[in-house]
Specification:
This protein is mainly α and 263 residues long. It folds into two domains: 110 residues, no CATH class; 144 residues, Serine Threonine Protein Phosphatase 5, Tetratricopeptide repeat. The protein contains twelve helices and no strands. The chain starts with a helix and ends with a helix.
C-alpha cells in the first residue's frame, strides 16, 4: 500500500504530535488513506491474534526444551522470534487479500444491497426549493431583495460555494423584518448545503420561536429542522417532527410521509 510505513507509524504511536494531527486531518479528506488505514489495522489485528494463539500452543514445548538444554535456552526464543517475523512477512500479502475481502463484505456489499436513501435530495426535490422562487424566500419577482448569485447557490445546490451563501445571508440586513426572516431561512438552507446541520437547526429554531414568523415560513423551517436533526443522527426527534407534520396533513405532510417510509 502507498502509505504503509506512515500508517504503521501511526498505529504504533511513533508519530510526533504534529505529524499525528496532520495525519488525522488528512484522513477526513482522503478516502483512499482512510481505507488503507482500516485495511492495515485489520492486518495487524489478525497477525497479533495468530501470533498470540501460536505462542500459547507452543509455550509449553518451549519451556520444556529450555529446561533440558542450555543451548535451547539461549537460542530457541530467538529462533522462534525470527520465524515469527518471517511468518509475518510471508502472511502480509495473504492477509491483505483477506482483509480486503472483509472490507468488501462488510462495507461495499451491504451498501450495494441496501443503499442508504439520500433524504436531503428527496427533501429538496420534493419541496422544490431549488426551483420555486417563492419557496426560496426570494420575495416578489420585481423586488430584488437578495443578490441573484447567492440565490443560485441554493437553487442549484452548489456545495462548493455554500460558505459564500452562508457569509452573505448571515450578514444580510434590512429595515423590513420579513426580509430579515427570509434571509435567515436561506441561511439555514445554506448551512444544510454546507452539511453544518447543527447550525441549521439553531437558525430554524430561532425562526420558529419568533411569534411574527408567517405560518408558511414556519412550516418550511419546521420540516427542514426535522431533516437536519435526522442528519445529525438525532433520529428520534427528527422522525417525530416528520410524523407530526404528516399528521397535521399540511403542505409538507405528503413529503414527510415519503421520507419516513425510506428511513
Amino acid at each position: 500500500m502507498k502509505h504503509f510505513d506512515l500508517i504503521e507509524d501511526y498505529l504504533f504511536n511513533r508519530l510526533s504530535e504534529e505529524d499525528r494531527v496532520s495525519f488525522e486531518k488528512e484522513l477526513t479528506n482522503n478516502e483512499v488513506l482512510a481505507k488503507e488505514l482500516a485495511l492495515q489495522r485489520i492486518e495487524f489485528d489478525i497477525i497479533d491474534q495468530m501470533e498470540e494463539d501460536d505462542l500459547r500452543t507452543k509455550a509449553a514445548s518451549w519451556k520444556k526444551k529450555l529446561e533440558t538444554s542450555e543451548t535451547s535456552q539461549k537460542s530457541t526464543p530467538e529462533t522462534k522470534e525470527v520465524k515469527l517475523i518471517n511468518k509475518k512477512r510471508y502472511l502480509l500479502p495473504i492477509l491483505a487479500i483477506a482483509a480486503s475481502l472483509l472490507l468488501f463484505i462488510g462495507i461495499i456489499v451491504p451498501n450495494f444491497i441496501t443503499p442508504q436513501p439520500n433524504i436531503l435530495a428527496q427533501a429538496y426535490e420534493g419541496a422544490k426549493l431549488e426551483y420555486t422562487v417563492t419557496l426560496l424566500q426570494k420575495g416578489d419577482e420585481g423586488n430584488n431583495i437578495f443578490k441573484q448569485p447567492y440565490l443560485q447557490i441554493l437553487e442549484k445546490r452548489n456545495k462548493e460555494k455554500a460558505k459564500d451563501a452562508i457569509s452573505y445571508f448571515s450578514t444580510f440586513s434590512s429595515d423590513v423584518k420579513i426580509e430579515n426572516t427570509r434571509a435567515k431561512v436561506n441561511l439555514g438552507h445554506a448551512y444544510i448545503l454546507e452539511e453544518d446541520f447543527q447550525s441549521a437547526i439553531d437558525v430554524f429554531t430561532k425562526i420558529e420561536n419568533d411569534p411574527d414568523t408567517p405560518n408558511r415560513i414556519r412550516e418550511e423551517v419546521h420540516f427542514f429542522k426535522g431533516i437536519a436533526l435526522i442528519k445529525t443522527e438525532n433520529n428520534k426527534n427528527g422522525v417525530q417532527i416528520l410524523m407530526d407534520i404528516q399528521k397535521e396533513n399540511g403542505r409538507y405532510g405528503p413529503l414527510a410521509k415519503k421520507i419516513i417510509e425510506v428511513l
